[in-house]
Design brief:
mainly alpha
């Protein structure tokens, strides 16, 4: 009878070990599935921002390219029309939306902290933000972006602050309402 109890205890131990191994195997499987899902999410995020960047650049016309160049020269953008400022504003906002999307994906853990650098956005952001033209529209753009992007831009401005000589509100009034500048 002693032999039977030993065998019963051994069978119970074997069942427990098998159950434990099944639990461990299922946890490993779930972990691998989560890892694979994260890899797919990162890949999709990189692909989406790549497509958005390509579409952005494909839709930029010669006049917008010229405005981005002139944004470095206050004497040049002092001659801009309201339509020029609006075009420049919309183009900058579109670019900032892509950066904001990246920042959100980094914040949510979809992309790692190096994603901005890997996709070339840190350099582009810094180059765009130190232009006098951008600094003229930043007060208006600032109201349209989230806190993470505001912080990024504001940190960039600490290094180089330009006092805008163009009164955009006055330009709007003259262009839209036909009123004289105040």
């Amino acid at each position: 009878m002693t032999e039977y109890r030993t065998w019963a205890a051994s069978t119970k131990d074997v069942r427990e070990i098998i159950a434990l191994l099944a639990v461990v195997a299922s946890l490993v499987f779930v972990g691998l599935q989560i890892r694979q899902s994260n890899i797919q999410a990162r890949g999709a995020a990189y692909q989406a921002i790549g497509i958005a960047t390509s579409q952005y650049h494909a839709n930029v016309d010669d006049r917008t390219i010229r405005l981005f160049t002139e944004a470095n020269y206050p004497k040049a953008f002092e001659r801009w029309t309201l339509a020029d400022w609006d075009r420049y504003y919309r183009s900058q906002l579109a670019g900032l939306r892509m950066v904001e999307t990246l920042l959100l994906q980094v914040e949510q853990g979809v992309l790692d902290a190096g994603a901005l650098d890997q996709l070339g956005y840190t350099l582009k952001v810094n180059e765009a933000l130190v232009t006098p033209g951008f600094q003229c529209i930043w007060p208006d753009l600032r109201r349209s972006v989230g806190p993470a992007l505001k912080d990024l831009v504001d940190r960039t401005f600490q290094a180089d602050r330009f006092k805008c000589t163009v009164n955009l509100q006055s330009l709007r009034e003259r262009s839209i309402l036909g009123e004289s500048a105040r």
